[in-house]
Amino acid sequence: MDSREGNAAADAVPLPFRTAVDALRAARLRPEIEIDPTRAPKRLAPHAYALEAAVVEDDEDLADGRLVLLHDPAGHDAWQGTFRLVTLVRAELEPEMAADPLLPEVCWSWLTGALQGRGLSYGEPSGTVTRASSHYFGGLGTRRPASQIEIRASWTPREGMGGVPDTAAHLAAWCDLLCQVAGLPPAGPADASVVSLPQRRGPQTH
C-alpha cells in the first residue's frame, strides 16, 4: 500500500474514534496492570479497538480481561449512542468465596461502582456474571477443585466535547474492576464499603 492509500485509510476512520483510541493508548494505569492491544472484532461495529490486560503480582496472573471500544458514527438504537464499551473479566476464586450466593450481585456492583467511583456518566448497561467450578479426576486428581468468576458486560459511555467519551477514564475504571476482582486493595484511600475477592493462595498442584 502506497502512502496515498495509507492516508486514505486513515481519513476513513472518524476523528472521534481516532481521538478516543489515542486516549486509550496514552492512559496511565496502575503498575500491576499489564496491558496490550489485541485484535478487535470486525462484525460488531464499523470501527473497533481492543485491549487485553492482566493483573500480575509476584509473577502470578491474578485476573485478566479484554476491553473493546466500538464506534458506529450513524448511532445504534440499542446503545443509545455512537460508542459502546464491551468487556470480559475473569479471575479464579477461593472455594468459600465461590459458594457465596450473593457473589453475582456483588461482582456486578463492582463494575457499576468502578464507573461511579470515577465520576463517569454512562447508559444502557447490560451483562452477565457467571461462576464455574472444576473438579479433577484420574491423572489430574492431584489438583484441588478450582472455581472461576467471569463478568461479561457492556455499557454506553456518554460523549463529551466533540462527540468523544472520556475513554481514558473508562479504561481506568475498568482496571479498577480488574484489580478488585484480583483481590488487590484500592489504589486510593481505602473505602470500608468496598469488598474485594481474597487473593488466591498460589498455583495449584499439577
Structure write-up:
It is a single chain. With about 210 residues, the chain is an alpha+beta fold. The protein has one domain. The protein is built from 5 helices and 6 strands. It has a 6-stranded antiparallel β-sheet. Strand 3 and strand 4 form a beta hairpin. The termini are far apart.
Give the structure's gist in a few sentences.
The chain has 5 helices and 6 strands, in the order ααββββααββα. With 206 residues, the chain is of the alpha+beta class.
Descriptive key words:
disordered N terminus; disordered C terminus; six-stranded antiparallel beta sheet; 206 residues; alpha+beta
Number of domain modules:
1
Distance between the termini: 49 Å
Q: Number of helical segments?
A: 5
Helix amount: 25-40%
Task: Tell me the radius of gyration.
Answer: 19 Å
Average pLDDT number: 84
Q: How do the helices and strands follow one another from N- to C-terminus?
A: HHEEEEHHEEH
Please summarize the sheet with the most strands.
6 strands, antiparallel
Tell me the total number of β-strands.
Answer: 6
Strand content: 25-35%
- Net shape: elongated
Low-pLDDT ranges: 1-9, 189-195, 198-206
Strand order of the main beta sheet, please?
A: 1-2-3-4-6-5
**Helix/strand class:** alpha+beta
Secondary-structure topology with pairs:
Layout: H1 3-12, H2 15-26, E1 33-38, E2 47-57, E3 60-76, E4 81-93, H3 95-98, H4 103-117, E5 122-134, E6 146-157, H5 167-182
Antiparallel strand pairs: 1-2, 2-3, 3-4, 4-6, 5-6
